[in-house]
Write a structure and sequence with these properties.
The chain is an alpha/beta fold and 290 residues long. The protein is 38% helix and 16% strand. It has one domain (6-282): NAD(P)-binding Rossmann-like Domain (Rossmann fold), CATH 3.40.50.720. The protein is built from 9 helices and 10 strands. The protein has an 8-stranded mixed sheet with strand order 3-2-1-4-5-6-9-10, with helices on both faces. Helix 4 links the parallel strand 4 and strand 5 (128-135). Helix 1 runs parallel beside helix 2 (48-58) and helix 3 (72-81) runs parallel beside helix 4 (108-124).
Amino acid sequence: MAKWTTNDIPDQTGRTVLITGANSGLGEQTARALGAKGATVIMACRTVSKAEPIAAAIGANASVVPLDLADLGSVRALAASIDSIDVLVNNAGVMAVPEMRTADGFEMQFGTNHLGHFALTGLLLPKITQRVVTVSSTMASIGAIQLDDLNFQRRRYDRWGAYGQSKLANLMFGLELARRLGRSGSPVASMIAHPGYASTGLQSHTQSWQDVMMKVGDLFAQSAAAGALPQLYAATSPAAASGAYYGPSGIGGLRGSPKQVNPIARARDEAVAGSLWSASEDLTKVTFDF
């Protein structure tokens, strides 16, 4: 595709988009870009006070609702409050945090990044008319789905291994969702995107000495606005396809305009994806109505 920018986003008037984690980073840039094109933007954020000034800057077509993906009670409450949306952007996430547990006892990164979004998508699916966009990461390449210990209850905790597993789960979920939607004949599409290496603020919350190294690395990263382009393309382009994965087109997939990219081989393992799906249903007690 030619170099695609926010100028190429079609008019979004009449579309309602719910974006998780829209108070900063990629989510904020996605909300701003879609709001500027006329979309009704619902910013689902854990810290409402941080999101409200952004919503005010976007205008009357933006609103903020509380959502803590690390608490399935919060996920259920938000889903129950929504009547209908056209697009869900599963954007929020935590990265390389110390060992912690969600309100439901899940490992924090797997619980927030994957299980929270899995549950939210399942609960909202009957109310979604067009697309689900799930944000993964190039760090999915360091992940492995440990089906016998998804929540690090027996193995030694590894913050980067846990992050990699959660982002690989995001990618596999988006691909499996596309397959299941397709088999059911649903008009809803499932796309996946990754930002490459973008300065989003996420890198400075590891609560370790690595925060300093991450801030240095930010000097070489592309902006959050540039990093948001793949998910904006997935959410808005008429050419975006269900089951497709979008990321930057530059060397190493780290920066540049968006293009369709190939998922890593283990993300395409349909047997593991099916087992992950079943495990996610068991853990969240959320099943999908196709």
